[in-house]
Write a structure and sequence with these properties.
The chain has 266 residues and is of the alpha+beta class. Helix content is 22%, strand content 32%. The protein contains five helices and 18 strands. It has helices spanning 86-96, 105-115, 139-146, 193-206, 208-221; strands at residues 2-3, 7-9, 13-15, 18-22, 29-33, 51-54, 57-59, 68-71, 77-82, 122-125, 129-137, 153-155, 161-163, 170-177, 186-189, 231-237, 240-250, 264-265. The strands form six sheets. The protein has a five-stranded mixed sheet, with no helix packed on it. α4 runs antiparallel to α5. It is globular. The chain starts with a strand and ends with a strand.
Length: 266
């Protein structure tokens, strides 16, 4: 369901978090897998979002968030099964039906403040109203492009050499009201790898203005369309449990999922 944009890490060289649904449990449960050295995986092991994989996992001892697991990256197996978008995302809705109305952002935040890393740290939350969005070019990315010839090579734990990861090309944030009647708003950054990869590809082909326009249309206009129901798949930071970010978007056609309230976008 989500792959976050890679970040440099002193401990792991490069940190990528994958979050999704564990389908070998009954009922299905949300799960976070990290760190995954995604760019270092063989091409045959580089899975896509919404793809079913098999992998050996272990509970992370240093991370008490209930959904967090480490992985043996050598055991990743792609099954060839991808949960698609036919019929307005009805199949995806069927997998996530128990999470579409499970909680809201205010409840998540309150529990995280009270119980720290023992609290729920992954969830689908439905905005009652998107108040505003902000989309800006990341100045660190602009600077990195200027220094392209000087970009350092990073030696990984596996003996490979990779070019250091680019900073995120764009900074996308949503400010919204959640379903809590007492909500005073939440402002959260989007750290979805899909967003940043799309921005990078558009920038390379057409330049920065078209990159921003593309992201605005796809990840603001389209997901907030009156024809869609919008949820944010959110997760928090291990060392800052009250800091939640948007990992990815879930936006089936309106009426496909069984929900109580519409989403209003501004």
């Amino acid at each position: 369901m989500a792959k976050t944009y890679p970040v440099q890490s002193h401990e792991y060289n490069e940190l990528v978090c994958t979050a999704g649904l564990r389908v070998d449990t009954n009922p299905y449960t949300l799960i976070r897998l990290y760190p995954i050295p995604f760019r270092q995986l063989d091409r045959k092991s580089q899975y896509s979002k919404w793809e079913v994989i098999k992998v050996k996992i272990r509970k992370r001892k240093k991370d008490h968030r209930p959904e967090s697991y480490g992985v043996d990256s050598d055991t990743i197996q792609r099954t060839g099964i991808r949960i698609g978008t036919r019929h307005g995302w009805s199949e995806r809705c069927s997998y996530l039906s128990s999470y579409l109305d499970q909680t809201d952002a205010c409840t998540l935040l309150g529990n995280a403040k009270a119980h720290k890393t023992d609290a729920q740290s992954l969830a689908l939350v439905k905005p009652r109203e998107v108040i505003t969005t902000s989309l800006d070019i990341n100045p660190e990315y602009v600077q990195a492009r200027k220094e392209k010839p000087k970009r350092e090579q990073v030696e990984t734990l596996f003996g490979q050499t990779l070019q250091s990861v680019w900073p995120s090309p764009v900074i996308l944030k949503y400010t919204y009201l959640c379903q809590s009647k007492h909500c005073r708003s939440h402002t959260q950054s989007v750290i979805d790898w899909e967003v940043q990869a799309a921005a990078y590809n558009q920038w390379e082909k057409y330049g920065p203005d078209e990159a921003v326009n593309f992201i605005r249309k796809k990840f603001i206009t389209d997901v907030c369309s009156s024809k869609k129901d919008l949820w944010f798949f959110v997760g928090n930071v291990h060392k800052r449990p009250a800091d939640f970010m948007i990992l990815s978007f879930f936006y089936p056609d309106r009426g496909v999922a069984d929900i109580r309230q519409p989403t209003l976008c501004a």
